[in-house]
Amino acid sequence: MTATGEPILRLRDLRVTFQTPAGPARAVRGVDLDVRAGESVAVVGESGSGKSVSMLATLGLLHNAEVSGSVKWGDTELVGASTDTLRSVRGRRIAMVFQDPMTSLNPVLTIGKQMSLVMKAHQPNLGKKELRTKAVDLLNRLAIPQADRRIDAYPHELSGGMRQRVMIAMAISNDPEVLIADEPTTALDVTVQAQIMELLLKLRNEHNLALVLITHDLGVVAGSADRVAVMYAGRIVERAPVLGLFASPGHPYTSALLDCLPRLDRRHDVVSSIGGTPPNPADLPEGCPFAPRCPKAIDACRSDEPNLVRIGTSDVACSVVAAGAAVGEPV
Amino acid sequence: MKRYLARRMAVMPFLLFGIASIVFLVSRMTPGDPLVTIVGERNLNNPEIVAAAKAQWGLDQSMPQQYASFMKNLVKGNLGTSFSTRQPVMHDLWERLPATLELTIYALLGGVTVGIVLGVLAARHRNKFIDHVSRFFALIGSSLPAFWAGLLLLYVFYARLGWLPGPGRIDPRGLAPNKVTGFYTVDSLLQGDFGLFKDSVMHLILPATVLGWGVVGIVSRLVRASLLDEFSMDYVRVARAMGLRERTVVNTHALRNALLPTITIVAFTFAFLLTGAVLTETVFSWPGVGSYAVNASRTLDYPAIIGVTLLGGTAFLLTNLISDIAYAFADPRIRLS
Predict the structure, then answer these.
(1) Mean pLDDT over all residues of chain A?
(2) Taking CB atoms and an 8 Å cutoff, what residues of chain B touch A91?
(3) Mind telling me which PROSITE patterns this protein's record contains (chain A) (predicted)?
(4) Distance from CA of A297 to the nearest CA of B (A)
(5) HEC string of A274-307?
(6) Which of A39, A73, A175, B272 is the most exposed place for a label (fewest CB within 10 A)?
């Protein structure tokens, strides 16, 4: 499924800096990303690559961080927006599902109460009965058995998968246009992971949702994303349609990530991994931040940080690849 | 739940028995002579009177004998007769408990309410002006000695400004209301005497403030700390990400969790105030258990001392039980068994 039309969410040169005792940590360093209705975009990267932080910054949920650049939902600028503006967008236009359903729900409030609070935040006219009916409806739609009873349950009485379904039900309860899912399956059993992903995709199709999937799991990406943005050290190093990315990865980092995936057509006595560690955002190396771990790195990589360049259907930020390919326009 | 309660109740008599034994021992080991109170200083030189008094109060018996008869009476609910008031201790306590309870309840209600509000404000405006003001206010409350704060307040609001009445439960020229509950604020209303009601409320303001201020200190600091803990929880971030108002995030989501530890502290404070309002009651001539306790220990009034201590012990055990039950209601993850 490919979506066309105006992007519904548009990130431009988004930058996030945290002040740490070790100096400013530049967690996100200029991210451009468009998301359209009905498409799913995966943001992939290792821990600390800035994928979650850029999404939290999108909703203005970061405290003690300097955020610059632009995030536009439609015509509304969200970076530096007032609390009221942000609040009217959060949950109503752009909703978010988080990684750990165990801690994402309040332990002392019932499921129904928490869902009601979310709906009431944006639909204050709903009465108690309507809220309850709607909540049961939502739980039913997310295939939660005995929804009319589960609604009075407390989070600890539900399994991890059920809790994540409840989280998703909360997230879609105000009919948002964008759903950001931050590692929605990481904390779940493998068997449940597939069900949750299926559910998210079904919702995307039914509601024409724009789905932003934050993950470090390329397996999840292959089955669910239309486009992929690979992040490294706070920047997008490759943007590509999902098929193109898997068939011919542009950036050496993407290739390295793909090599880490176990495959049926290869012998795997040892699971391969990328040597070295991601750089510290408070102490980034000069040049391309991936250069110290990159098998293709040349001297130029250690002095100049490359920008994204269009190569075929992909945008790649790599000097070596750009030099070897028929380079298109810089993007 | 029922079984849990039954088990807790069943243990209580044994705990009280232990408390009574320890207090019995400690009070007898205290240097001093209760006979001074019983017969008066002058008669101490008269061996006949002393011997008669000793026999009358059972002080001529050996310690084990005294202990045995004390325990026998205790089982029957008899705490003995006070040396100084010459009334059964049970009767004395029953007379004085309502005064203390009334003062304590108002102090606690006020202190907990103000404490929670201050704690929430301080947490929401962490390290801002209002947080510093609340910290200062709490610090004063928990560090000012009650006798000093009490005298100061009396001096300012009674002696200088004349806005509030002086010590005592009501105007000394007035009559106490007929005893129904023993709470003057309630009894005065029951007999429809609004003047008396107002008078008793005015008399409560200063001592309840002194007593409640310390509670404000404890509760506001605790609420602030546990709210800040909750603010870093995932579910708070989720609530914000879903577009909930900050007021809802704090009051409905975070506060519910943050108040759990407060339950224990409030229960503990209540029991503490019941017996610990000694200084406040003394400064304000409050005819409660605290001033009774002061008098009892000053005169080595053994039965009264033991009576007050057992009352305190019972209060601690009961409030502890109540706080555990309240906890189970407030936190669905806890099932008492």
Answers:
(1) 88
(2) 241-244
(3) ABC_TRANSPORTER_1, ABC_TRANSPORTER_2
(4) 40
(5) CCCCCCCCCCCCCCCCCHHHCCCCCHHHHCCCCC
(6) A175
Given a cut of 90, is residue B182 above it in pLDDT? no
Q: Tell me whether residues A156 and B332 touch, CB distance under 8 A.
A: yes
How far apart are the CA of B220 and the nearest CA of chain A, in angstroms? 22
Arithmetic mean of pLDDT, A183-211: 87
A89 contacts in B (CB within 8 Å)?
Answer: 243
Q: Which positions in chain A touch B237 (Cβ < 8 Å)? A: 61, 98
Say whether pLDDT at A326 is over 60: no
B336: pLDDT strictly greater than 80: no
pLDDT in tens, A210-269: 999 999 888 888 888 999 999 999 999 999 999 999 988 989 999 988 888 776 676 656
ipTM higher than 0.95?
no
Alpha-carbon distance values, A84 to A78, A124, A173, B73, B194 (Å): 11, 15, 20, 70, 49
Q: How far apart are the first and last CA of chain A?
A: 24
Nearest CB among B234, B256, B260 relative to A104 is that of B234
Confidence of residue B204 (pLDDT cuts 50, 70, 90): very high
Work out the angle between the directed axes of helices A111-122 and A160-172 (0-180°, nearest 10).
Answer: 20
Query: According to the model, what pLDDT value does residue A1 have?
Result: 45
Q: Which of residues 122-181 of A touch B (CB under 8 A)?
A: 122, 154, 156, 167, 170-171, 174
Which residue in the set B238, B245, B333 is minimally distant from A87, CB to CB? B245
Answer yes or no: do A154 and B332 touch at CB < 8 A: yes
Least confidently predicted of A39-48, B29-38, B181-190, B244-253: B29-38
Domain A7-93+178-265+272-323 CATH superfamily: P-loop containing nucleotide triphosphate hydrolases (3.40.50.300)
Q: Please, what are the domains in chain B?
A: 20-75 (no CATH), 97-330 (1.10.3720.10)
Q: What are the tens digits of pLDDT across the range B257-301?
A: 999 888 888 888 888 887 667 888 888 888 888 888 888 888 888
**Which residue among B241, B253, B332 places its CB closest to the CB of A59?**
B241
Which chain B residues are Cβ-neighbours of A184 within 8 angstroms? none
- What is the DSSP track for A112-156? HHHHHHHHHHH-TT--HHHHHHHHHHHHHHTT-TTHHHHTTS-GG
End-to-end CA distance of chain B: 6
Q: Where are the beta strands (DSSP E) in B226-282?
A: none
Q: Which residue of A has its CA nearest to B238?
A: A104
pLDDT above 60: residue B88: yes
Domain ranges of chain A: 7-93+178-265+272-323, 103-175
Alpha-carbon distance values, A150 to A117, A145, A328, B97 (Å): 17, 8, 55, 48
Interface test with B, best of A96, A99, A115, A117 (most B CBs within 10 A): A117
